[in-house]
Each structure stands twice: as C-alpha cells, then as structure tokens.
Amino acid sequence: MTRIPGTDLDIRPLVLGANTFGWTADEHDSHAILDAFLSAGGSLVDTADGYSHWAEGNVGGESETIIGSWLEKGGRRDDILIATKVATHPEFRGLSAENISAAVDASLARLHTDHIDLYYAHYDDDNQQIEDMAVAFDKLVKAGKVRWVGLSNFSVTREQKWLEVAEHEGLASPIALQPQYNLLHRADVEDPQGYGQLASEYNLALFPYFSLASGFLTGKYATRDDLHGVARESMMAAYLPDDEHEKAAFTVLDQLREIADDHGVEVTSVSLAWLMAKGVTAPIASARTVDQLGPLLAATDLTLSHDEVRALDAASKLFTRD
C-alpha cells in the first residue's frame, strides 16, 4: 500500500483511469471493471468532467455518469476514492470562479455523490489569476464538496505559484500533481526543474497520466504499421515524430519484452512497474475490459531490479531530452 502525501489515505499504488468509460467501454463493462478493481484492493478512480466529449455522439460527462450509475446501483462509495477534473467539459470550459462553482455541482450530480475526494484543475486558464483560482477551489473544500485539490497540465512555474499563494493565504493547498510521464515522455518530470522536483519539494503526490503512452507501451505493436486503424493511433504516433524516435521507441519495447519474459508477466506490467520504481505515488492506467485490468494490477506486485531499471533508462534515454 502507498500513502497519499498530505492525507491519511493508503491506496494500492495503481489509479484506475476512467477515460474509457462511455468511450471504448460501455456502461456494463465499465461497471464490471469498477467491481473487479475494488475487489482486487484498488480504490482510487480518476475521471474528468470532459470525458469523453471527443467520441462521436458524446457530449461530455459520460464517464462521470457511468461511475454515478454504478454508485446508484450499490457501488461502495465508502470504499472508493473519486478524482475528477474541471476545465474541459463543453459547457464548463476554463477556470473562472463562476465556472468552477457550476462545474463541480454538475459533476456531483452526474456522480451521484455529495463530495469529490480529489478535484483537479485540469488545464491552466491563462485568462485567470492563480490567486482567484486558488480561492475558488478553497471555497469548494470549505463547503465540503471537495476533500483535496490537485493540479494537471499547468506549467511548473504556475503550479509553484499556486502552492505559494495557498500557503501564504491559508487556502486549501494542492496535494497532487498529474503530469504526463512514461518511458517515452520523461523530461517533464525528470528535469531538475520539473514536476518531480516540485512534488518532492512540497511533498505532493504524483499521479502520472498516459502511463502506457496511450497503449504503445502495452507491447501490442511490433511495427509502426501495427498502429494503423487503432482507436488511439494519432496519440501513439505522437511519440514517433521521426525515424530516430521511432527506432528508440521500438528499442524500448524490445527491452520491456525481455524483462517481461524474465518475470513471466506482460509488457504492460513492466511499463507500470518502471514508473513505480521511479517513485511516483501511483500511475494512472485504464482498461476497457476486465481482462485488461489484470496486467495493470500485476504491476503493483512486481519489483524491478536496479539493473532492469537501468536497462530501461538506457533504452529510453532519448526521451529524457524531449
């Protein structure tokens, strides 16, 4: 188990990403995934008010609605921690105080709950002052609608300012950061002035998203051609902008497969175990079927040796300077 800094909560060190709910996983499958995750000792589920407005026929809020219907059918609210976010729902874009106040009420209604455990500012809003956003989130905590605050997709400078404002003004201070971090996207966290350093300095949780590089690091793909027609093709292709990166990315996969074979586990498990070895609080990973959940959970029981971590570091060295 892993303690979430700034709280009294211990979690199995894997966050279930719910971005698939209402997109690639229907309500029935999503409910089954939630049941299986909690039965396996998982507890923290991560969603956003905007998930999944990008899918054909969706309007935003589908993921929250599915989690809400699961809770309404008897889901164990006391056993689940819900993290959601504000800024990207088509009806609630941005981080003005008025928008934050309206968006949280809409999320609570969809989720069929009276509180959100961890509420993230999803994307920075350059039109807003950090001080105003920090006050708006503090009001939600004081009202009992939100227990803790998190930040995602802000610059390190803006996140640090939020932390300084909260400390100086006695406001609810963020306890968690959610940056992108995986074997093919390392620099943002590992840079000396990056998110990892900020988390260490302020004792914040790190819950990285795209932990599996949008699925590329599951090991399903042996060549660039294998990506054609896949739902997340464009997202995975972003990690392969040129021949140098493409070659390096598949070298990383080769190293992952070698280590996975040595441990008798799937590539997915090794990819996530590498993140855990790097000291993150818990990576976020999603599943569209219950079967896909197994390798995610297996990562929490897998400890990589120092040599294995070094081998993966070496294979992915190119991605420390992107």
UniProtKB/TrEMBL annotation:
Species classification: Bacteria, Bacillati, Actinomycetota, Actinomycetes, Propionibacteriales
Database matches in Pfam families: Aldo_ket_red
GO cellular component terms, A-Z: cytosol
The enzyme's E.C. designation: 1.1.1.91
InterPro entries for the chain: AKR, AKR_Detox_Biosynth, Aldo/ket_reductase_CS, NAD(P)_OxRdtase_dom_sf, NADP_OxRdtase_dom
Positions of the NADP-dependent oxidoreductase domain: 13-316
Name recorded for this polypeptide: Aldo/keto reductase family oxidoreductase
Keyword tags: Oxidoreductase
PROSITE patterns: ALDOKETO_REDUCTASE_2 (PS00062)
Domain of life: Bacteria
One example GO MF annotation: aryl-alcohol dehydrogenase (NADP+) activity
